[in-house]
Amino acid sequence: MRLTRRGAGTLVGAVALVALGLVAGHPLLLALGAIAVGAVVAALAVTARRPGVEVIRELFRDRVERGGRAGITLRVHNPAPRRQAGFTAVDRVGDHALTVTVRSLAAGAEQSYLNELPTGRRGRHEVGPLRLRRTDALGLGRSELLLGGTTTLWVYPRTHPVRSVAGSLPLHHHDGAATETSPRGSLDVREVREYVPGDEVRHLHWKATARTGRLMIRDYADPHQPQFTVLLDNREETPAEPEFEEAVEVAASLVVAAAKEEHRCRLVASSGLDVAAAPGSGAVRRFLDELCVVERVGRPGSPLVPAALANAGGGMLVVVSSAVSAADVAVLAAVRPRYVDVVVVALRGAAPVIPGARVLRATDALDATSRWQAVVAR
Where are the domains positioned within the chain? Predict the structure, then answer.
């Protein structure tokens, strides 16, 4: 319980009026000062009683694409035997404040309120904590009650429908040709990582689980399985919004399509981000979680292709960038022989000429995915 700025100003004015009335001997000034003091005291008395209600907050869809719909529901219940006066509930979503005006509640009554969350900015946003505020009619005093903890709203980059294309690793002469019945995800252990929803339970690594205290799983890779690698240029010298957001959308569209089509996928960023996941719904969520928080980082002059990717190879490599320099062209030309196919998506920039690689020049993510469909996935 405390005074607002208006209440503090009113109190200072009241004291001044009383003092001036005493010095000058004007009863009217004394009366006005006394009325102001009484208003401040009444405001503190009204706001001293905090809302005695039970509030349940529910987040509707905690993972949405940028610009998608997400909401938060407040269920307010009055367990007291008397009517509760109205108040204001304030929730925070990142830098935004969401305000709900809660009407007075009869004894035992319950009321629900729905508020739409802002999803215009990609990222992982903290929602809460919830604050219940009560003020008097004149806005002189205010009390605040903090309720509950926080939850997380994941705003993913938008994805556009595309068809994925991937290449397989070359086989040794004694392996024979890969067929549709070739085993997938059952030959080589790529890594042992934490379990995510959608992973095969039969691949749980019990020793690692016991050692870490978390569910760990073997991530298998089949060298015959089509593989698809997306490199996102997130160097500091790349243009910021909206160019970078368009690049993230292109990368998300391609890697999600590849994971859904059961291709072995790898997402790499120039900053060093390197995520490989088995195909399926678990991979989609894992890639989108990473792309949800990726930002432009690094020092000027950082290489477009990280060392781990430059020394790898096989399958298809797709590079998404809005700032391909002459030095980058030389690096891409050097790594081109390591891959079955290399495609460079150049956003809002000049289309570089890279020997042996296909270059798609596009204005935005929608244009890029349309050109991908027409040129690469036709």
Answer: 2-47, 54-156, 222-376
